[in-house]
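Discussion board: Methods & Data

I've been asked by a reviewer to show the raw model output for two of the constructs in my manuscript, not just the figures. I'm not sure how much to include, so I'm pasting the format here to get opinions. Each protein appears as its amino acid sequence followed by a line of discrete structure tokens. Is this the kind of thing reviewers expect to see in a supplement, or should I convert it first? Here is construct A:
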Amino acid sequence: MTSSTERIQPEEFPDGPYGAAHNQKLGKSTPWEPGQQIHSAFTYEMREFHEGLERDYPGSHPRHDEPEEPAQS
């Protein structure tokens, strides 16, 4: 299980918290610690549960989680 101190959650609003000052610096306010990583709001949390499933929404872009095969010339 990953500790909550290792996964940095993204802001709910890209402009910062509601009511925040306009000149406030966004992003992480403390130094990075070993093992910390950003958790994207747009990816699956547990990829193994969704392994092999294609996106079925019309117009969705292809997944980028698997390496592409090198082009043969």
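Construct B, same format:
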Amino acid sequence: MKAIIPVAGIGSRLRPHTHTQPKSLVPVAGNTILGHIIDRLKAAGLTEYVFIIGYLGEKIEQYVREHYP
């Protein structure tokens, strides 16, 4: 089963944290928001993910490649 993860938002309400990084990469409780989401999906048995990216999408791609190869 595939999980579709929308991470395209600008995150304007989280400024100044989102001036240089997307909202999904803001750290919360020792991990990024996206990291928490992927970890929970992995724990539920999902292994394929489709990311809907937009604002600073290249940073999301880089994060996923580095942390979830």
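Answer (T.O., handling editor elsewhere):
This is acceptable in a supplement if you add a one-line summary per construct. For B, something like: The beta strands are 2-7, 27-28, 31-32, 48-53.
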